[in-house]
Design a protein that fits this description.
Blueprint (H helix, E strand, L loop, with lengths): L5 E5 L8 H10 L4 E8 L6 E2 L2 H8 L6 E6 L17 E5 L6 H10 L3 E6 L17 E5 L13 H15 L6 E5 L4 H10 L3 E4 L12 H11 L1
Parallel strand pairs: 1-2, 1-9, 2-4, 4-5, 5-6, 6-7, 7-8, 8-9
Antiparallel strand pairs: 2-3
Length: 223
Amino acid sequence: MKKTSQISVSMMCVDVTHTRDMVRLMEKNGVSYFHIDIMDGEFVPNFCLGTDYIRQLRTISKIPMDIHLMIENPDRKLDYFDIRPGDFVSVHCETTRHLQRTLQYIRSKGAKAMAALNPATPLENLRYVLDDLDGVLIMTVNPGFAGQKLVPATLGKIEDTRRMLDETGHENVQIEVDGNVSLTNAVRMRQAGADIFVAGTSGLVKDGVMTEEGIGDFKKAIA
């Protein structure tokens, strides 16, 4: 069952000096989420964004956050973040020993809980937490850096995820894709069953900025 497609703009790709103007452009053009990449230098070899960034971004816009925690032991750190109702919060299956408990805690905050899978992480890891999920984040590149190439096998993984969700009565669980979501790849990802598209340097944010025309073209690609 295909749902309405949504855009989640990768804020790590937006030039910080243009943030306010870009936020106004996103509001005007119906962008659904701010995708906030949180990296700890341990789970992925990079550092990016943080708690103050989220707090400051909330002062200039009411667009919900799509908080992507690429950090070890996220269950111990969820209270660092200003998690609010309407937000998505994703944790990687590889990073916590108690995934179900972590997902439940996210939901207790009124947010939507999402499990993230790296390209090589088996889909089977989700089988016993399906009732605790609002979304699945399929990484279509290995996380940590912008500008990578699509891992081709992940297109099949999107299809397998959609099939698994539909066959187990979890049709309402959304699939988000993150990594090399170019206009061409976005079409293929949509056909495979993706619902939410993380738009960064490959498809929407060019040299740190976006245009109204660019958002329009991206919307057409994922329609």
